[in-house]
Amino acid sequence: MAINRRGFLSATGALAATSLLQRPSLAADSIKVGFTTALTGPFNEFGEGYKRGIELAIEKLNKAGGVLGRPIEIAMMLDDQLIPDRSVQNMRRLLDNKDIVGLFCPSGSGPTLAVIDMIQADGRPAMNPQAQTPTVIYPGGPGSKPRPNVYTFSIQNDIEANFMANILGKKFTRVGLLNESTGYGKTGGELVKAGIIRVNKDAVVTHESYNQKDQDMTAQLVRMQRAKSEALMVVGLGADMAVIRKNMVRMNMTLPLYVSAGGFSPPYAEGAGDLALGTKGSQYRKISTVPPAKEVLEFLNAYKAKHGTDRLWGGDPAIPSPSMGGTVAGGYDGMMVMADAWRRAGTTDPAATIKAMDSTKGLVGVNCTYEFTPDKHHAVEVGDLTTYEYAKVDGRLTLVQTNL
Hints:
This protein is α/β, with parallel strands linked by helices. The protein has 2 domains: 5-156 and 288-383, 3-Layer(aba) Sandwich (Rossmann fold), CATH 3.40.50; 158-283 and 386-401, Response regulator (Rossmann fold). It contains 12 helices and 14 strands. A 7-stranded mixed sheet has the order 7-6-8-9-10-13-14, sandwiched between helices. Strands 2-1-3-4-5 form a 5-stranded parallel sheet, with helices on both faces. Strands 11-12 form a two-stranded antiparallel ribbon. Strand 6, helix 6 and strand 7 (204-210) form a beta-alpha-beta unit. Helix 5 (157-171) crosses helix 6 (183-199). The longest helix has 23 residues, at 323-345. The two termini are 13 Å apart.
């Protein structure tokens, strides 16, 4: 796919003036939101990313006069380091604050699953920017009734699994499948395996797992070699995938490596370096499409004005990494959709807000177009994903859209 990087930069620069608009005067009684997420620790790119997304959305909304004539503010922002026990402690503090009218779930499926029943019982609307396990939203599994007050802005495991299984099942008969042992990795791995077999009934899937932050996955990889796997699919996060990639190189294991969306986070490229070249997988399509849509340009322009082309942006200064969709845009879109519901409801009352959320239709966001109903609380579908591969562009390690 040809990428016009100069045109992309020119378009983003043309919108730079929007960040200089003067902020209108706002009423003092603010609308308060709160969240707990991984702001520090080995997976802080997720929490820091979606915090930045929420902040960018709030700045945009407040510059336009806020919502219902009131500014929006982050009343509580707590750090859980992606540790479920800390998420529970933090969520209790958040739920005790009755001034907060909008909640955001933690980063990652483990911490989110640890608090999701508390959130549902509380009843205030909650946006889920990143956790991918379907039971976060649908406790009875995909297709079941959703939790009435929780909406997801992430790529659910079942959606991603269908996308990747269709690729792997058609290309390979013997697949090695390795997933982390968290809720995200376990459900993702099981769904990918079932999907591969559904696509290719003759497929042999050698399925192994590992614990987050493990430093040696040699034993699992050896079993895949013995099974004569033709490709390896990993469901996990970038820091761990860098370890896996190094293990593969040390073992002279040359089979193609495919990763889930969580593997395209900055720590993978930082940890693996040029060893990441050729790694393939799925991520959001819209955020890195050239030319970018107007709403994407506006979001990226605001991000660059505040943070520059930093590690979350990615290796190509001209075009953002698609991982920006998962680390930043999920929080941004979640805040914008919640604000739209308050506006249409004419109030921040939880019941009225949820009713308005359930009638969201055709709301164009950075990652996709959002539509929710009382029976459907996810938005990202297979058509919102595409395939990427690590390559060198102008000497920089970056992700490019590709055909797998």
